[in-house]
Amino acid sequence: MFGKSFAPGTEISAITMPAGLGGAVAARLESIGQGAPVSCYPSSRRWMFLTEVDLPDDRPPAGLAEVNAGIVAGTDIPLPSPALRCAAARIWIVPPTSTSLPSRSTVIAALRRCAAAR
Q1: Residue 57: burial class (beta carbons within 10 Å; 0-12, 13-18, 19+)
Q2: Could you tell me the pLDDT band of residue 4, with boundaries at 50, 70 and 90?
Q3: Do 52 and 1 contact (CB within 8 A), yes or no?
Q4: Mean pLDDT across 105-117
């Protein structure tokens, strides 16, 4: 998984959001035992959560745009590389520890709950 990118398909997708909301979502997922690998591109201050696909890509779930979140679809998902360690490189916030990922709907539910609590 490290340093590669792969096309989203029926198994893996990603959800992006601002770093501030991302921190709350990561903590929420961890508290329910559904931690997700999270990367970020520091200059954009956006976090990207890797998920399993259980919702279609064609219609983004309601409410994501209002919190500046989105689903990565129809493109490669960039992942951090252990070889690139410069300030401009994508980095792991929460590195993957297994091949198990939370479902897209679980991450979206956590995102909605955290956004509502703000």
Answers
A1: middle
A2: very low
A3: no
A4: 94
Length of the chain equals: 118
95-101 CB contacts, 8 Å cutoff, 24+ apart: 95/37, 96/1, 96/2, 96/37, 96/50, 97/37, 99/1, 101/12, 101/36, 101/37, 101/50, 101/51, 101/52
For residue 40, give every residue at least 6 positions away whose Cβ sits within 8 Å of its Cβ, in sequence order, or none: 19, 22, 46, 47, 48, 90, 91, 93
C-alpha span between 41 and 114 (Å, rounded) = 22
- Distance in angstroms (rounded) separating the CA atoms of residues 96 and 82: 13
- Rounded CA separation 23/39 (Å): 11
Beta-strand pair 70-72/5-6: unpaired
Enter the tokens of residue 11.
């198994």
Q: What is the pLDDT of residues 60-79, one digit of tens each?
A: 788 889 999 999 876 788 88
pTM: 0.85
